[in-house]
Every structure is written in structure tokens, then in C-alpha cells.
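ingest -> validate -> predict -> emit
validate: passed (alphabet ok, no gaps, 476 aa)
predict: started
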Amino acid sequence: MLKHVIPRRHIPPLQLQRRWATQTSQQPFHPSTNEWSHPPSNATISDEEIYRLAAKPRRPLTLADLVRHGKPPLRDAALLSSANFTLSLLPSRLAHRIQAMRNLPFIVVANPHVSKIYNNYLHSLSTLEPFYKKPIETIDEEIRFTDAMADIVRTHSNTIPTLAQGFLQCRKYIEPAEVTRFLDQHLRARIGTRLVAEQHLALHMASTGDAATRPPDPNHVGVIDLALRPADIVRQCEGFVAEVCELKYGIRPSLVINGEVDAEFAHIPMHLEYIITELLKNAMRATIESGNEREAIEVTIASAPNVTTTKLDSLRKLSVTEANAFDFSQEGLEEYCSSPDADVGPLNAAAPCITLRIRDRGGGIPPEALPNIWSYSFTTFNNEEAIEAAGETGGSAGLNAISNSGTNQSSIAGLGYGLPLGRAYAEYFGGGIAVQSMYGWGTDVYLTLQGIGKMDDVKKSKNGLEELQEEVAGTE
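emit:
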């Protein structure tokens, strides 16, 4: 860690914590609107620098971008290129999120939990400021940058439950539609920001020290698994969710996998783990509470090797509410991906596509609840229990944050964030989630994920490194 970077554990408390200390976690704070323009911060970065970075257009991200540096262990030149590519993306993305949080109603951003996340973003941008002033040219600089990135990733590991608690406390002062709109944009942006950071960290760890001398894993490029087996992920998530059910209900639901159980494709295991965990939580809880625990949950896996973006239109339209007003036709998707709001560009080539159907006999979704299932502000538990859940939730690799809570009901019902956040992970790289409910019987959930193709499909010309360096220089 650079000496001039203040570690998170040494940052003094916020100036307003004394005023908030007397408030319980269930009581929202009522500040005066004339005391400051935005919450106080110990960050050193100036408002002018934040405005400058936020004004820069965000570069769309694809999975191909993350594998273009090659398989680890990387040579020094490729590792430096990865560091500079990472550094070309993160500052403006962090600045965009800071500006978005400043645009929230004052009483919301003044909430201690929301303010904590706001200050985390300011701290992270301040940490990166010494690095993005000039390109990283030596391995020593890359090591210092990677140490700073590791600190940033740890700082943001608990963002989701912290924001959840803050917005639950402020639910009287902000419309549910506004909460959903902000969180959808914020959490989708967070997926890309965290993915870029963790990809470089993984490449660095696999290319330095003892790891560089070990035989390389032919199936992994950083956080991407080029031969990911969905059936293995389903079994892994089943074990975790079934254990939670057994602790809460004393019942361990059964699950069967059929279809193409040996199917493989290239994707990010952490993303799929989060999505499957949330879908299985819903299915197992509904199955148990409907009294049909003897009926096994059925997971069917199917692969479609040449599914293009256009062929996913019907699935996306089923998974997006009218309130979001997104056009997921081929033309609409390309227009969205070229806009400043996009975090991911369309995949240029057809890539293997995997569809999973999760079928349960949990009685289906009540008609009055169906319109709300994609809302971040919707939960099947009451407000007091949801706030308690937010307070007890801890983080695990940043992606399973809402799942890893105590043994109370929040472990199953969560905070109402699981399904919409799972959809965000699915849609981020061209997939989607669709729900078909037969009320009184059960629910089918269709999860479609589009991979990145084979490594041979990724451009690896002799001049690839020089092209990447020119591209990175052009984004600074």
C-alpha cells in the first residue's frame, strides 16, 4: 500500500456520527437541509476532478475485453497492459456513481448507511488518483496499483446490504420507483466496475510469485472459466441453500438435474453462483411453505450453440417490466449499448448459450405479487424483519452478500433484492431471466446466459498488445 493512501481502518469517523449515534438502526435520521451541500468526507479528491471524470463517456465492456490479455501467467508487458486498461475504466465509473448518489434526495444520501457507501466511493477514487495521472510503466508500479485495487475491492464488499439498509430506513422519503431505478443503475454499474478490478487482481495473482511457476489452468482466464459446467454450479448452490432451509425449517428439499448435464460454456462462475443461489432460495422456500417438500425441484439444462442477440429478444421482453422502458430488440439493444447508460457492449459474434429451467411445486406466485417481483423495494417480509435482515447480512466475495445472513427468516426471504439483482447479473452479458407462474401449482424460471465463445474467437494478432495500448491511451 502506498504510504500516502490512508487505510480504511484508520479513516476517522464521519463528522456526523456523533449525531447519528443516538439513533437506532430502525430510525431514519432527519438532518437540516441547510448544513452542507453533500455529506462530509475525508477524501482528498476535489469536486472539480470528480466533475471532470464524470463528464468522460464510459467505455462499454465485453467479456472479450477481459480475456484479450491472454491466459496467465502473463508476461510483464501484458500485465502492465492489463493494469493500464483497468485504470482507464475505473476512475470515470467511480465518478459517475458519486455524481449519481449526489443527485439523490438530500435526506437519503444523508442516511448513515447511504453516506457510508458514498464515502467509500470517494475514498476509492482518491486512492486511484495518484495512479491515473500517468501510465503504469514498471512492475513495481503495477504491484503498488494492485495493492491499492485489492483495498478498494475489500472496501466495497458489503455495498449491497449496506445500501439495502439505508434505503429501507429512507422508504418514507423516496418513491419505490425511484429506489428501483437508482439501484438498478447503481448495481449494474457496480457489476462492471467490480468485474474489471477483480479480473486484473486475478491475472496478477496468477502471474506473480509462486503461482507463476505452477502449470497454468487451461480453463481459467482471471475470473472467467472457459469450461464452466452449470450443473456443477447448481449442485454447489443446492448444498448451501438446502443447509439454510434445514437450519430454518428442519427440512432439506431435494433437487434433480436433467437435460444436458455435461454442457459447458465460458462465463463467470461468481455471477452464476449468485443467480442460481437466489433462484434456488425462492424455489426451496416456496416448496417448503406450500407443504410440497416431497416434490423435488427440477433443474433442466439445455445448450444452444448459435444463439444470437436477436434470438434472446423474447426472453428479455418477458424479464423486463414496462416501467423500465428498455427496448431489447436488436436495434434497441445496439442503441442502448452505445449510450452513456450502458455498461456492456453487444457481443459481436454468436457464442454458446445456456438455458436453465428451475421448476418447483411451490404453489406459484400470487397475482397481486407478480407485478412487484422485479422491484428492489419489494420483499415478502415486513419492514421490521427486512431492516433486521439488512443489519445481520454479511459479505462473501461481494456477490453472495444477501445470501450469507443468520439463521433467521432473512436467510430465505432476504431483502427483496435477490431476483432483480440476479436479473441484472444475467442481463449484463446478454442473458435474461423469465418467470412463468401457475398460481396454485408452481413456478418455472428460465435463466439464459450467453457465453463469450472460444478463446480462438478472441482476436490475438501480433499487434494485439500495441492495439490495446493505443486504445487505452485514447480513453485517458
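The chain has two domains: 15-23+44-221, 224-455.
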